[in-house]
Amino acid sequence: VTADLLVVGTGLIGTSVGLALRGQYDVVLDDPDAEAVGVAVARGAGRPWDGGEPFRHCLVAAPPSAVAGVLSGLMRQGATYSHVASVQRTVQADLATAGVPLADVCGSHPMAGKELSGPAAAAGGLFVGRPWVLCPSAETSAGALAAVREVAERCGAEPVVLTAEQHDAAVALVSHLPQVAASAVAAVLDSSGRPLQLAGPGLQDTTRIAASDPVLWVELLRQNAAAVAPLVRQLAEELDVVAGALDELAITPAADPAPVESLLRRGGAGRRRVPRKRGELDRDFVVVPVSVTDEPGQLAGVLVSAAQAGVNVEDVRVEHLPGRPTGVIELLVHPSSREHARAALSQAGWDVVGG
Ligand SMILES: NC(=O)c1ccc[n+]([C@@H]2O[C@H](COP(=O)([O-])OP(=O)(O)OC[C@H]3O[C@@H](n4cnc5c(N)ncnc54)[C@H](O)[C@@H]3O)[C@@H](O)[C@H]2O)c1
Questions:
Q1: Ligand 1 in contact with 9 (CB < 6 A)?
Q2: What is the pLDDT of residue 286?
Q3: Burial of 160 (C-beta count, 10 Å sphere; 0-12/13-18/19+)
């Protein structure tokens, strides 16, 4: 039989693709790490590839530097190929250098992921509603582009076609700059040597991706260094100006706080431009906070009450208060349903907090 899809690299992304395509595609899996294949198969992402079975399309979900090597060892007549590397220009150049037939290959990058890696962290729903960038080269055939577009669509993602250059410039801004910034904040925390018990959700939010795999990230930053360097430089300049203004304020409280205020205002404007969900912005939602005791079933109970009241919950955040027997469940709702949600949840016996 000819498998619909061969996934090479059954880590977080490869296994998530297999899980997403379950019941839609006959997926075979391969990885030099036999344990990674074993976990992916056990989770239902596909069946192991025997090394000879033919396939219609192959998706390489290995680290970017491995993609060209994998493809040059694999390519045969009649199939199409893609990869999911988080950087595209260098991989495209590697493929050309490796002498791979470029007509049969289309690069791609699902804009979904986690700070975790490996097949155990995979999830079939990872790509739902997320952009999936397709990066055909000048040589890529219509068939190769269509094949990876179909994979993306069947995974529930929204395909977006960009050149490799456009892709790399875009991810430098929305992914690589934030990684450097989060790592820098967390590195300052670490080098301070001071306890962090007072940390709240703000610190969680700003440092979440600092937990990312350093080996993968050194590779990504190395491969996109030309696009990332000017952005990191700009960040450093912003910080330098604020540090100077704070130095002055520390000496003279009457000194000019304008540089600090300017950063905060422009930061607010930038934050408002960050999409929360496709086509929607953060400011479109308001928070309904509910104080709960730290026992099982509270989150489910709040969500059931919201559903029974016909409240459309856009997102949920849970904040545990360290050392306290209570936590806060924050429901994000459309502003028009805020009052209804507050009233309905109070009536259902929940402790809705704030005005
Ligand atoms: N993690 C993310 O958030 C994310 C998001 C989008 C795209 N990507 C891209 O997806 C790809 C895989 O990343 P991941 O997060 O799934 O990593 P991962 O570490 O979870 O999985 C990578 C897998 O590739 C395998 N591998 C290593 N060398 C190989 C080789 N030469 N041939 C075949 N397989 C090999 C490893 O054994 C491992 O199982 C990378 O190109 C990455 O840039 C990652």
A1: yes
A2: 85
A3: middle
* Among the listed residues 277, 296, 294, 297, the one whose alpha carbon sits nearest the alpha carbon of residue 285: 277
d(CA 8, CA 48): 10
Over residues 57-83, the pLDDT tens digits come to 999 999 999 999 999 999 887 899 999
Name the residue among 196, 53, 29, 3 with its Cα closest to residue 119: 29
Q: How far is the CA of 189 from the centre of ligand 1 (A)?
A: 29
Closest residue by Cα to atom 18, ligand 1, is 11
For atom 9 of ligand 1, which residue has the closest CA?
85
Residue 35: strand, helix, or coil: helix
Residue 280 binned pLDDT confidence (cut-offs 50, 70, 90): low
- 307's enclosing H/E stretch is helix 298-308
Burial class (CB in 10 A: 0-12, 13-18, 19+), 75: middle
CA distance 97 to 18: 30
Minimum-distance ligand 1 atom for the alpha carbon of 10: 39
Residue 100 DSSP class: -
Which of 6, 8, 10, 12 for mutating ligand 1's site (highest number of atoms within 8 Å of CB)? 12
